[in-house]
Design goal:
Order of helices and strands: EHHHEHHHEEE
Strand content: 15-25%
Number of helices: 6
Radius of gyration: 19 Å
Helix content: 40-55%
Strand order of the largest sheet: 2-1-5
Shape: elongated
Length: 140
């Protein structure tokens, strides 16, 4: 199964990420002078292109190839709840889909292990599942 995670990003958000990662474009250029064959070249070129075309949205894609996960109705329902309802805990998701919390936890942990979701720290050490993508495409 090939899963493509797609996120559309605004220019400002991408620029802030690059600044957080490298400090400034000048620092990135100096870093590249030391290691010119480095793949950082692509980050620099993309950053420059972005600043020349600030109204263009950035489409980021991440591809996962796996045979360890089955995405059925329950998983789709869980992903929809995470994306659209911003649940505060796994237990809240279990209540919404009317499933056993332990079973729901297992499904959510598998989705996280495969990279489809991540967790933020919630209240009282709860794990808040987060879906940081706008679109998920699945090819079988």
């Amino acid at each position: 199964m090939i899963i493509t995670l797609i996120k559309e990003q605004a220019t400002k958000e991408y620029d802030e990420q690059m600044k957080a990662k490298y400090g400034s474009m000048e620092k990135l250029e100096k870093l590249l002078e030391k290691t010119p064959e480095n793949t950082l070249y692509f980050d620099l070129q993309n950053w420059k292109l972005l600043l020349e075309n600030p109204e263009e949205p950035i489409i980021k894609k991440e591809i996962i190839i796996t045979d360890k996960i089955s995405i059925g109705e329950n998983e789709t329902q869980i992903l929809n709840i995470i994306k659209n309802e911003n649940p505060k805990s796994i237990r809240e998701i279990a209540n919404k889909i009317k499933k056993d919390p332990a079973n729901t936890t297992n499904k959510i942990n598998l989705l996280a292990k495969e990279g489809l979701i991540s967790f933020k720290k919630g209240l009282k050490n709860s794990k808040m599942p987060v879906l940081n993508y706008d679109k998920i495409e699945i090819a079988i």
